[in-house]
UniProtKB/TrEMBL annotation:
One of its GO terms (molecular function) is metal ion binding. Keywords: Electron transport, Heme, Iron, Metal-binding, Signal, Transport. SUPFAM superfamilies: Cytochrome c. This is Putative cytochrome c4. Residues 20-106 form the Cytochrome c domain. It comes from Photobacterium gaetbulicola Gung47. The keyword Zinc does not apply. The keyword Signal applies. It comes from the Bacteria. Residues 1-18 form the signal peptide.
Amino acid sequence: MKKVVVAAITCLSVSAFASVETESGRQLYLSPGKGGCATCHGETGNEPVMPMYPKIGGQMEMYLINQMQDYKLKKRKNGLFVPMEVAMEHYSDEDILQIAKYLASF
Ligand code: HEC
């Protein structure tokens, strides 16, 4: 019985820690006044409003960081890059790390 209780507490604290870890990224991602990410990609990044918008929730963290940095530094110029260049202008390098952590958590 004791073991079960310990296991349950461990699970709870791990998931609480995970949500604390991704909370600031979630705020940055959802923040309506800033980049409007969720307006186009949906709350978890997987509900794009247009069929030609990509699903980004659950993508690898390092990949997400690289793509966001490339738009911000105006290095990625494919397809529909314009809204992304504008969206990423508002975010610092640290913000990008936090957003990537949030999106990769799905
Ligand atoms: C106006 C709609 C719009 C907004 C707002 C927007 N995006 Fe995007 N996003 C797109 C489109 C369209 C693409 C595909 C662009 C391309 O072809 O390069 C994209 C691509 C991406 C990619 C790369 C996906 C891949 O697999 O290569 C990431 C990551 C991303 N967006 C994250 C974000 C984040 C984070 C924000 C908020 C800061 C945001 N987007 C705001 C429309 C939007």
